[in-house]
Amino acid sequence: xxxxxPLRVLIAGPRGFxxxxxxxxxxxxxxxxxxxxxxxxxxxxxxxxxxxxxxQKRGAIFVDELNEVPADAPVVFSAHGVAKSVPAExxxxxxxxxxxxxxxxxxxHREAERHYARGHHILLIGHAGHPEVIGSMGQxxxxxxxxxxxxxxxxxxxxxxxxxLSYITQTTLSVDDTADIIGxxxxxxxxxAHPRKEDICYxxxxxxxxxxxxxxxxxxxxxxxxxxxxxxxxLVEVAHRSGSESAxxxxxxxxxxxxxxxxxxxxxxxxxxxxxxxxxxxxxxxxQKFDVDMSEVxxxxxxISFKLPAMLTE
Length: 314
Known about the structure:
Elements: E1 5-13, H1 19-35, E2 39-42, H2 49-58, E3 60-63, E4 75-77, H3 85-92, E5 97-99, H4 103-117, E6 121-125, H5 131-137, E7 145-148, H6 151-156, E8 165-169, H7 175-188, H8 202-215, E9 220-224, H9 230-241, E10 245-249, E11 265-270, H10 276-289, E12 290-298, H11 310-313
Parallel strand pairs: 1-11, 1-12, 2-3, 2-4, 4-5, 6-7, 6-8, 9-10, 9-11
Helix pairs in contact: 8-9
Protein backbone atom coordinates (compact mmCIF):
# COMPACT_ATOMS: atom_id res chain seq x y z
CA UNK A 1 0.00 0.00 0.00
CA UNK A 2 1.41 3.39 -1.06
CA UNK A 3 1.99 5.81 1.78
CA UNK A 4 -0.16 8.93 1.49
CA UNK A 5 1.48 12.28 0.93
CA PRO A 6 1.20 14.52 4.03
CA LEU A 7 -1.02 17.59 3.64
CA ARG A 8 -1.48 20.36 6.18
CA VAL A 9 -5.01 21.78 5.89
CA LEU A 10 -6.02 25.13 7.36
CA ILE A 11 -9.76 25.79 7.54
CA ALA A 12 -10.92 29.40 7.76
CA GLY A 13 -13.35 30.47 10.43
CA PRO A 14 -15.80 32.01 9.97
CA ARG A 15 -16.88 30.42 6.69
CA GLY A 16 -20.09 29.25 5.06
CA PHE A 17 -23.63 30.26 5.93
CA UNK A 18 -24.29 33.78 7.18
CA UNK A 19 -27.38 34.87 9.11
CA UNK A 20 -29.12 36.23 6.00
CA UNK A 21 -28.67 32.99 4.05
CA UNK A 22 -29.71 30.90 7.05
CA UNK A 23 -32.86 33.01 7.43
CA UNK A 24 -33.73 32.80 3.73
CA UNK A 25 -33.50 28.99 3.71
CA UNK A 26 -35.55 28.81 6.92
CA UNK A 27 -38.19 31.02 5.27
CA UNK A 28 -38.63 28.57 2.38
CA UNK A 29 -38.69 25.59 4.77
CA UNK A 30 -41.20 27.33 7.07
CA UNK A 31 -43.38 28.30 4.10
CA UNK A 32 -43.42 24.65 2.98
CA UNK A 33 -44.39 23.60 6.52
CA UNK A 34 -47.12 26.24 6.82
CA UNK A 35 -48.64 26.26 3.33
CA UNK A 36 -47.62 22.83 2.02
CA UNK A 37 -45.93 22.09 -1.29
CA UNK A 38 -45.49 23.56 -3.75
CA UNK A 39 -44.04 26.88 -2.67
CA UNK A 40 -42.68 28.98 -5.52
CA UNK A 41 -39.40 30.88 -5.18
CA UNK A 42 -38.52 33.75 -7.49
CA UNK A 43 -34.87 33.22 -8.50
CA UNK A 44 -32.42 31.06 -6.54
CA UNK A 45 -33.15 31.68 -2.85
CA UNK A 46 -29.35 31.83 -2.37
CA UNK A 47 -26.56 31.17 -4.85
CA UNK A 48 -25.87 27.52 -4.17
CA UNK A 49 -26.95 24.59 -6.34
CA UNK A 50 -26.85 22.08 -3.45
CA UNK A 51 -29.20 24.24 -1.35
CA UNK A 52 -31.55 24.84 -4.28
CA UNK A 53 -31.75 21.14 -5.17
CA UNK A 54 -32.38 20.19 -1.54
CA UNK A 55 -35.31 22.63 -1.35
CA GLN A 56 -36.63 21.37 -4.69
CA LYS A 57 -36.79 17.86 -3.20
CA ARG A 58 -38.95 19.27 -0.39
CA GLY A 59 -41.39 20.90 -2.80
CA ALA A 60 -39.97 24.31 -3.70
CA ILE A 61 -40.32 25.36 -7.35
CA PHE A 62 -37.82 27.96 -8.56
CA VAL A 63 -38.93 30.38 -11.28
CA ASP A 64 -37.45 33.40 -13.03
CA GLU A 65 -40.48 35.69 -12.90
CA LEU A 66 -43.84 36.05 -11.16
CA ASN A 67 -45.81 35.26 -14.31
CA GLU A 68 -44.71 31.63 -13.79
CA VAL A 69 -46.44 31.52 -10.36
CA PRO A 70 -50.06 30.26 -10.28
CA ALA A 71 -52.63 32.58 -8.71
CA ASP A 72 -53.28 30.31 -5.71
CA ALA A 73 -49.64 29.51 -4.80
CA PRO A 74 -47.38 31.20 -2.23
CA VAL A 75 -44.15 32.75 -3.52
CA VAL A 76 -40.89 33.66 -1.77
CA PHE A 77 -38.53 36.41 -2.95
CA SER A 78 -34.81 35.61 -2.79
CA ALA A 79 -32.31 36.82 -0.18
CA HIS A 80 -30.71 39.19 -2.70
CA GLY A 81 -33.67 41.59 -2.68
CA VAL A 82 -36.04 42.64 -5.44
CA ALA A 83 -37.05 45.84 -7.22
CA LYS A 84 -40.20 47.51 -5.85
CA SER A 85 -42.04 46.50 -9.02
CA VAL A 86 -41.92 42.84 -7.92
CA PRO A 87 -44.00 43.04 -4.69
CA ALA A 88 -46.21 45.59 -6.45
CA GLU A 89 -46.94 43.03 -9.17
CA UNK A 90 -47.52 40.32 -6.53
CA UNK A 91 -50.05 42.57 -4.79
CA UNK A 92 -51.76 43.42 -8.08
CA UNK A 93 -52.21 39.69 -8.71
CA UNK A 94 -53.19 39.14 -5.03
CA UNK A 95 -50.44 36.58 -4.57
CA UNK A 96 -49.44 35.45 -1.10
CA UNK A 97 -45.75 36.40 -0.94
CA UNK A 98 -42.96 36.23 1.62
CA UNK A 99 -39.94 38.50 1.24
CA UNK A 100 -36.69 36.71 2.20
CA UNK A 101 -34.48 39.74 1.42
CA UNK A 102 -31.54 39.79 3.81
CA UNK A 103 -32.12 42.54 6.42
CA UNK A 104 -28.66 43.95 5.62
CA UNK A 105 -29.68 44.34 1.97
CA UNK A 106 -32.94 45.97 3.08
CA UNK A 107 -30.82 48.44 5.07
CA UNK A 108 -29.10 49.50 1.83
CA HIS A 109 -32.50 49.95 0.17
CA ARG A 110 -33.70 52.23 2.99
CA GLU A 111 -30.47 54.25 2.78
CA ALA A 112 -31.03 54.82 -0.93
CA GLU A 113 -34.58 56.03 -0.24
CA ARG A 114 -33.39 58.42 2.49
CA HIS A 115 -30.71 59.96 0.28
CA TYR A 116 -33.13 60.26 -2.64
CA ALA A 117 -35.68 62.01 -0.41
CA ARG A 118 -32.98 64.62 0.33
CA GLY A 119 -32.65 65.32 -3.38
CA HIS A 120 -29.43 63.35 -3.84
CA HIS A 121 -28.26 61.33 -6.82
CA ILE A 122 -27.14 57.88 -5.67
CA LEU A 123 -23.93 56.10 -6.69
CA LEU A 124 -24.22 52.34 -6.22
CA ILE A 125 -20.87 50.54 -6.02
CA GLY A 126 -21.51 47.02 -7.26
CA HIS A 127 -21.46 44.51 -10.12
CA ALA A 128 -23.78 44.97 -13.11
CA GLY A 129 -26.33 42.19 -13.50
CA HIS A 130 -26.03 40.83 -9.96
CA PRO A 131 -29.53 40.25 -8.48
CA GLU A 132 -28.74 42.43 -5.45
CA VAL A 133 -27.72 45.34 -7.70
CA ILE A 134 -30.84 44.92 -9.85
CA GLY A 135 -32.97 44.95 -6.67
CA SER A 136 -31.22 47.98 -5.20
CA MET A 137 -31.46 50.00 -8.41
CA GLY A 138 -35.14 49.07 -8.59
CA GLN A 139 -35.91 50.83 -5.30
CA UNK A 140 -35.92 54.25 -6.99
CA UNK A 141 -37.11 55.72 -10.30
CA UNK A 142 -34.97 55.04 -13.36
CA UNK A 143 -32.00 57.39 -13.56
CA UNK A 144 -31.88 58.06 -9.81
CA UNK A 145 -28.96 55.65 -9.30
CA UNK A 146 -25.70 55.37 -11.25
CA UNK A 147 -23.73 52.12 -11.07
CA UNK A 148 -20.01 52.36 -10.29
CA UNK A 149 -18.18 49.07 -10.86
CA UNK A 150 -14.51 50.10 -10.78
CA UNK A 151 -12.13 52.83 -9.65
CA UNK A 152 -11.97 53.85 -13.31
CA UNK A 153 -15.77 54.35 -13.31
CA UNK A 154 -15.37 56.47 -10.18
CA UNK A 155 -12.72 58.61 -11.87
CA UNK A 156 -14.91 59.18 -14.95
CA UNK A 157 -18.26 59.90 -13.28
CA UNK A 158 -19.42 63.49 -13.85
CA UNK A 159 -22.07 65.58 -12.10
CA UNK A 160 -23.02 69.24 -11.99
CA UNK A 161 -24.26 68.84 -8.39
CA UNK A 162 -21.31 67.46 -6.40
CA UNK A 163 -22.97 68.52 -3.14
CA UNK A 164 -26.01 66.34 -3.93
CA LEU A 165 -24.33 62.94 -4.13
CA SER A 166 -24.56 59.86 -1.90
CA TYR A 167 -23.10 56.39 -2.26
CA ILE A 168 -24.29 52.94 -1.26
CA THR A 169 -22.67 49.56 -1.97
CA GLN A 170 -23.55 45.99 -2.75
CA THR A 171 -23.15 43.94 0.44
CA THR A 172 -20.88 41.23 -1.00
CA LEU A 173 -17.98 43.19 -2.52
CA SER A 174 -14.24 42.99 -2.00
CA VAL A 175 -13.52 45.14 1.06
CA ASP A 176 -10.19 46.34 -0.40
CA ASP A 177 -11.50 47.07 -3.92
CA THR A 178 -14.47 48.96 -2.52
CA ALA A 179 -12.21 51.05 -0.27
CA ASP A 180 -10.19 52.02 -3.37
CA ILE A 181 -13.33 53.05 -5.27
CA ILE A 182 -14.67 55.04 -2.32
CA GLY A 183 -11.27 56.72 -1.98
CA UNK A 184 -11.44 57.93 -5.58
CA UNK A 185 -15.01 59.18 -5.16
CA UNK A 186 -14.34 60.98 -1.88
CA UNK A 187 -11.26 62.68 -3.32
CA UNK A 188 -13.31 63.97 -6.24
CA UNK A 189 -16.53 64.66 -4.30
CA UNK A 190 -15.57 65.40 -0.67
CA UNK A 191 -19.14 66.47 0.20
CA UNK A 192 -20.59 63.12 -0.90
CA ALA A 193 -22.81 61.54 1.78
CA HIS A 194 -21.95 58.02 2.91
CA PRO A 195 -23.73 55.20 4.75
CA ARG A 196 -24.12 55.59 8.51
CA LYS A 197 -22.64 52.13 8.79
CA GLU A 198 -20.60 50.13 6.27
CA ASP A 199 -22.84 48.54 3.60
CA ILE A 200 -20.55 45.56 2.96
CA CYS A 201 -22.06 43.06 5.35
CA TYR A 202 -20.34 41.63 8.43
CA UNK A 203 -20.27 38.13 6.91
CA UNK A 204 -18.51 39.23 3.72
CA UNK A 205 -15.97 41.23 5.73
CA UNK A 206 -15.35 38.42 8.22
CA UNK A 207 -14.94 35.73 5.56
CA UNK A 208 -12.48 37.86 3.60
CA UNK A 209 -10.49 38.55 6.79
CA UNK A 210 -10.38 34.81 7.59
CA UNK A 211 -9.37 33.95 4.01
CA UNK A 212 -6.48 36.43 4.21
CA UNK A 213 -5.37 34.88 7.51
CA UNK A 214 -5.02 31.37 6.09
CA UNK A 215 -3.88 32.34 2.58
CA UNK A 216 -0.70 33.92 3.88
CA UNK A 217 0.35 30.46 5.14
CA UNK A 218 -0.97 28.38 2.24
CA UNK A 219 0.32 27.23 -1.13
CA UNK A 220 -3.25 26.86 -2.40
CA UNK A 221 -6.74 27.79 -1.19
CA UNK A 222 -9.98 26.06 -2.17
CA UNK A 223 -13.07 28.26 -1.93
CA UNK A 224 -16.30 26.29 -1.80
CA UNK A 225 -19.10 28.22 -3.44
CA UNK A 226 -21.08 28.85 -6.61
CA UNK A 227 -19.69 30.60 -9.70
CA UNK A 228 -22.58 33.11 -9.54
CA UNK A 229 -21.92 33.85 -5.85
CA UNK A 230 -20.32 37.29 -5.57
CA UNK A 231 -18.96 36.78 -2.06
CA UNK A 232 -17.42 33.39 -3.01
CA UNK A 233 -15.67 34.85 -6.05
CA UNK A 234 -14.31 37.68 -3.92
CA LEU A 235 -12.79 35.07 -1.54
CA VAL A 236 -10.84 33.57 -4.46
CA GLU A 237 -9.48 37.03 -5.28
CA VAL A 238 -8.62 37.79 -1.66
CA ALA A 239 -6.70 34.51 -1.27
CA HIS A 240 -4.81 35.14 -4.50
CA ARG A 241 -3.83 38.66 -3.46
CA SER A 242 -2.65 37.34 -0.13
CA GLY A 243 -0.05 35.21 -1.88
CA SER A 244 -1.76 31.88 -2.46
CA GLU A 245 -2.98 30.12 -5.57
CA SER A 246 -6.75 29.75 -5.28
CA ALA A 247 -9.69 28.11 -6.99
CA UNK A 248 -13.48 28.15 -6.70
CA UNK A 249 -15.17 24.75 -6.49
CA UNK A 250 -18.82 23.81 -5.95
CA UNK A 251 -18.30 20.24 -4.73
CA UNK A 252 -15.48 17.79 -3.95
CA UNK A 253 -15.88 16.36 -7.46
CA UNK A 254 -14.59 19.70 -8.84
CA UNK A 255 -11.16 19.48 -7.14
CA UNK A 256 -8.26 19.60 -9.61
CA UNK A 257 -6.03 16.97 -8.02
CA UNK A 258 -3.11 17.73 -10.34
CA UNK A 259 -3.06 21.29 -9.01
CA UNK A 260 -2.61 19.93 -5.46
CA UNK A 261 0.15 17.38 -6.11
CA UNK A 262 2.98 19.65 -4.88
CA UNK A 263 0.93 21.50 -2.25
CA UNK A 264 2.21 21.24 1.32
CA UNK A 265 -0.35 23.53 3.01
CA UNK A 266 -3.91 23.81 1.69
CA UNK A 267 -6.48 26.35 2.83
CA UNK A 268 -10.23 25.79 2.75
CA UNK A 269 -13.00 28.32 3.10
CA UNK A 270 -16.62 28.59 1.94
CA UNK A 271 -18.79 31.41 0.68
CA UNK A 272 -21.75 32.68 2.69
CA UNK A 273 -24.26 30.54 0.77
CA UNK A 274 -22.29 27.26 0.96
CA UNK A 275 -23.46 24.75 3.61
CA UNK A 276 -20.98 23.12 5.97
CA UNK A 277 -21.85 19.67 4.58
CA UNK A 278 -19.93 20.64 1.42
CA UNK A 279 -16.86 21.51 3.50
CA UNK A 280 -17.08 18.07 5.14
CA UNK A 281 -17.42 16.46 1.71
CA UNK A 282 -14.19 18.16 0.54
CA UNK A 283 -12.34 17.11 3.70
CA UNK A 284 -13.46 13.50 3.21
CA UNK A 285 -12.16 13.55 -0.37
CA UNK A 286 -8.82 15.02 0.79
CA UNK A 287 -8.39 12.33 3.46
CA GLN A 288 -8.81 9.64 0.80
CA LYS A 289 -5.85 11.07 -1.12
CA PHE A 290 -3.61 12.57 1.58
CA ASP A 291 -2.48 12.11 5.15
CA VAL A 292 -4.32 15.19 6.39
CA ASP A 293 -3.22 17.26 9.39
CA MET A 294 -6.14 19.64 9.86
CA SER A 295 -6.53 22.75 12.01
CA GLU A 296 -9.03 25.59 12.10
CA VAL A 297 -7.94 29.25 12.05
CA UNK A 298 -10.67 31.35 13.67
CA UNK A 299 -10.34 35.12 13.27
CA UNK A 300 -13.79 36.02 14.64
CA UNK A 301 -16.85 34.39 16.11
CA UNK A 302 -20.33 35.20 14.83
CA UNK A 303 -23.53 35.11 16.85
CA ILE A 304 -25.88 37.13 14.63
CA SER A 305 -29.33 35.80 13.75
CA PHE A 306 -32.34 37.37 12.07
CA LYS A 307 -36.01 36.80 12.91
CA LEU A 308 -38.34 35.12 10.45
CA PRO A 309 -41.26 37.17 9.02
CA ALA A 310 -44.19 37.28 11.45
CA MET A 311 -46.56 35.64 8.92
CA LEU A 312 -44.53 32.42 9.22
CA THR A 313 -44.28 32.36 13.01
CA GLU A 314 -47.77 33.44 14.05
